[in-house]
Specification:
about 290 residues, alpha+beta, about 55% helix, elongated
Length: about 290
């Protein structure tokens, strides 16, 4: 017996048995063995919920068995694809996994809610995102250069005098030439005025005083006489006016900041080497520029 116990083969068999027993215990309490597929109660519940939400009814018995068979098929293909290394160097999979890692960071950042003080500080430090531009309430009459020709300046001056003498209230809209755009604009943002009439027109409106007819004012279409009723200068609104917009921007900024910190923390665990491209590759890249 003592001689048998001293045999190396016996030691090997005992060690193998111990390893097998330990492996069995680990798999009993942890993940299933590689060749075993378990569709858990949680997965079944998720499948049932997804089907019911999509089709607005629970599956029939036959449909339910089909869902289970498809889930097993998916797991089989998934495991075999991993075994064959099909997930390696796949751009779609790499991007999806990156996206899931960013979702983890997003969830952590989304847990915080900003205070009014934080929102107001963000508003003051990023005024360009929330500033309200000038707005104009005005009327305009169009003078077509092709109709008036060399008499454009004279006709504009005469019409301007007439409009200011009468106050421009009686049939003023019919005294100009036909025009595709509106004659009246109420609280129109400067950007919208620029889209319709051009930069020169908007810049000129910014220098005119409200309360009487003025012009001519040049646009991309020709000349205009304008009556500014009200002009609101650009300003930075109070937090109460733009709270939702500031909150969205604050959340987005915090999410980006959290993502970057999360990435930098992960990057510390790696040594990055960027290999220089071969000379021929450098020439090809240069040719594309």
């Amino acid at each position: 017996m003592k001689r048998i116990i001293k045999e190396p083969l016996v030691h090997f068999l005992l060690l193998g048995a111990a390893i097998f027993a330990a492996y069995s215990m680990v798999n009993r309490n942890g993940e299933p063995a590689p060749g075993r597929i378990v569709i858990s109660q949680g997965q079944l519940a998720s499948m049932m919920e997804g089907y019911t939400r999509t089709w607005q009814r629970p599956p029939t018995g036959e449909e339910w068995q089909g869902l289970i068979r498809d889930r097993v098929r998916e797991e089989v293909y998934y495991r075999e694809a991993l075994a064959l290394g099909l997930d390696k160097d796949d751009t779609v999979i790499r991007r999806r996994l990156r996206q899931k890692m960013e979702f983890i960071s997003d969830d952590a950042a989304a847990q915080a809610s900003p205070t009014d003080a934080e929102l107001n500080a963000y508003l003051q430090s990023h005024p360009e995102k929330f500033r309200v531009g000038p707005q104009f309430t005005f009327r305009q009459l169009y003078l077509n250069p092709e109709v008036h020709g060399a008499n454009l300046a004279r006709d504009a001056a005469q019409l301007l005098v007439k409009l200011n003498q009468t106050g421009g209230d009686a049939d003023w809209a019919t005294t100009g030439d036909p025009f595709m755009l509106d004659n009246r604009f109420t609280a129109a943002p400067a950007g919208e005025v620029t889209k319709q009439f051009g930069d020169k027109f908007t810049a000129r409106l910014g220098g005119l005083q409200p309360g009487h007819w003025q012009g001519p004012v040049e646009s991309g279409f020709g000349e205009h006489l304008v009556f500014i009723s009200e002009r609101t200068e650009g300003h930075l609104p109070a937090l109460a006016e733009v709270r939702d917009a500031v909150s969205r921007e604050w959340d987005d900024g915090r999410r980006l900041e959290a993502n970057e910190k999360f990435y930098q923390d992960l990057l510390k665990h790696y040594t990055v080497t960027i290999e220089q491209p071969a000379e021929e590759a450098v020439k090809k890249i240069a040719a594309l520029k």
